[in-house]
Amino acid sequence: MREYRLVTVACLCRKRPSIARQIACQIVVGLSLTTGLSQFVLSQEPADKKPSVVPAATSSQQIQTFVEQLGSNQFRQREEASAALLKIGEPALMALSAVERGRDAEVRVRARAIRERIEREKFEGIAQSFRRDPDPTASYGLPGWKSFSQAAGTSRPAKRLFLKMLQRRRLVALCLESLEGGSVPEGVFDGLPEDAQARLWTVVGKTCMDVRHNLLTAGESAEPGDLITLLVASQVLEQPPQDVHEAIRLQCNMGALDKLMNLPGATPASRKMLGSWFRRAPITYSLEVFSLGRMYQVPEAGDMARRVLESPADYEMKASDLIALSNFGNASDLPLIDKFVENRQVLEDFYPQMNLGDVQVDATAPPNATPRVQRNTPVTYQRTLGDVALAAGLKISEVELKPLFPGIRIEEIYGMRETTIGFPVDQPELREKAIKVYRDIRAKNNPPAS
After folding, report:
1. Is the dihedral of CA 171, 177, 180, 185 positive or negative?
2. 178-214 pLDDT, tens per residue?
3. Helix (H) or strand (E) holding 361
4. I need a labelling partner for 329 at 20 to 30 A (CA). Which of 31, 215, 310, 449 fits?
5. Dihedrals φ, ψ of 351, to 5°?
6. Spatial separation of the C-alpha atoms in residues 192 and 184, rounded to whole Å
7. Residue 252, H or E segment
8. What is the DSSP letter of 402?
9. Nearest-angstrom CA–CA distance, 28 and 110
10. How far is Cα 351 from Cα 61, in angstroms, rounded to an integer?
């Protein structure tokens, strides 16, 4: 059957080369899943002909030549190029990755199949021993373990996350290994910057482009391995580019973080990586950070709040950060909150009664009678930056807020609603009462020096 298919392809090559190439591509991919591309190529060679030999040290120009031959019009040349690239191994990864989004469908399929097999075979043999070994320093030759363990820990679930990163983005792991001073296969970094940080920057930048393409253009689902890679890279890079932060946010929004947190035992390591990113993410990401921090109980979200409060951000942004600090902060944050308690910058006027409805209908009248409607005149409340700071400080001090803030709404999931914090404009004494409670607490915990 195999000989029949090859003869058919050979005949079609003369009359319908485009169709022949598509059929050949399907045959090759199907066989590569079972016996592998290299075995398939060797099985087609005559008994008296030796297979082509790939030099031990292959130059980047030779690798590029083999990659170009993946799109050759001659079936045998495409097969020989596939086998050669498989034999070269890791030094061919960058070149293969570069053509995976090209126009030629066969080149794309072949390049991806070869790259995935090279990456898979590299660590499958030792992954099981690595996972079981309790020694946190034993990397078993897997690249990038030192940098990863510093970012995520050395537990067994953390090791499983590390293997996911290797499966998905091995070239990034090799860059991490090089940055740590470890050895990598010769030729892997051909065409990349010599400086280790610049090289990691370049490879991570391409990873960000791949992530955006896969999620937004190709419509692929979010991969936890990509998110793990970017979270670790954001800690290792001296100055992570904006693309890294944006790709992390995109991955989180597209479901990669949910998948990561739901992996068995992976929550502690995932929280550690996420918390480290919170410390380095731009302050413009504060709302996303607070949402993720509250959802997954990551206290490092409080660090983002402190950075924003110490920055020249606008008042609305600082109000949201005071709420976040009340969720993630502690008593040591009260001096920072004190700076805002007396700030009377008006953020909004609101009417708490509107939340409950300002129209009441008399349901006791006869069915045909015109219902009597009672309209309540809403009481105007005012929310200032100082009001929000006061609520945050009292919450950290574990004071019940509802008796002090007449219009406040506190929900089990979201906590206190920022837009319901404030006092009636015609009852300033209510604010003075809350201020006194807060000052008494501060004076008790911070008595004046004698």
Report:
1. negative
2. 999 998 988 889 899 999 999 999 999 999 999 999 9
3. strand 359-361
4. 449
5. -130, 100
6. 14
7. helix 242-253
8. T
9. 8
10. 71
